[in-house]
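So, could you explain the following?
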Amino acid sequence: MFKRWGVLLGLLVSCSTWGAGLDRFPLTAGDLSLGLSQDWRQPLPRVTRALIIVHGRLRDAQTYLESGEKAAENAGQGASTLVIAPRFLIEADARHEHVDDQLLRWTDNGWMAGEPSTGPGHVSSYGALDQIIKHLGNRRLFPALKEIVVAGHSGGGQVVQRFALTSHDHPKLQTEGIALRYVVANPSSYAYLTAQRPVQFDAATCPGFNDWKYGLDNLTAYAKGRSPAQLEQAYVSRDVTYLLGQQDIDPNHHALDKGCEAETQGAYRLIRGHHYFDYLKQRHPQLRHQLVEVPGVGHNGDGMFTSPQGQKVLFPE
């Protein structure tokens, strides 16, 4: 009997301490769960860089917050860096963790594709990132901010690549002289700009290969209102780095997208990244994007961002 009550008490403690270290960012549609390395509700005059770091499929924002903080500290930029780790909850999280109804949540894969939240209101996961960026443009709170870096690994890498492709302009950042960069680490797939693919396949057996989020057909509502040509032109003009683990080469990795839409891009993440970068370079020889490999690291977000190569990308001198 005592043992049973001990288990129940443990479960209650676990639920009550959910979100330790996580904060809330109120949006019109609801509150976004996120982790913060510093309190951004008060002025942060020492902060010159903001790192928005997006979790993978496990939605472990706290882990990614700690990785971002560690990378910043190792680079000697902990005090001058604000790390922000949004958590894109799904319905199952909300049920299992007994979170209140005001926290935003998405479908299992919808948050990666920029789909609108399922409750309490409706906002695209990309729109939520836009609101974070807009908040960072407040000079009263961030008088010394020079740069915003949006980085993501695995599922978060999918988010950042597609957000970089479809994101709305932030004219205030340009007015205030705040640079915006994107770091895409080890995603399972990319959004292609045309129907061209590096792997030969029969389109009849994979009719959705060019649908969003793999291509620009049937775009999500967040991206509509702009033509594919407009999206492409905006994308190639942005500062994007593809950070690829040299050991992320397992074609049977448990979290690798093995759907036919992703298989047309290559057998595993490293080659898919190279194929996509080569495709962009072929279309835009003067492409400003860059590709950086991380030796000795496979599908590991912490290993990627805290590596010497990852630190150099996130915190260039």
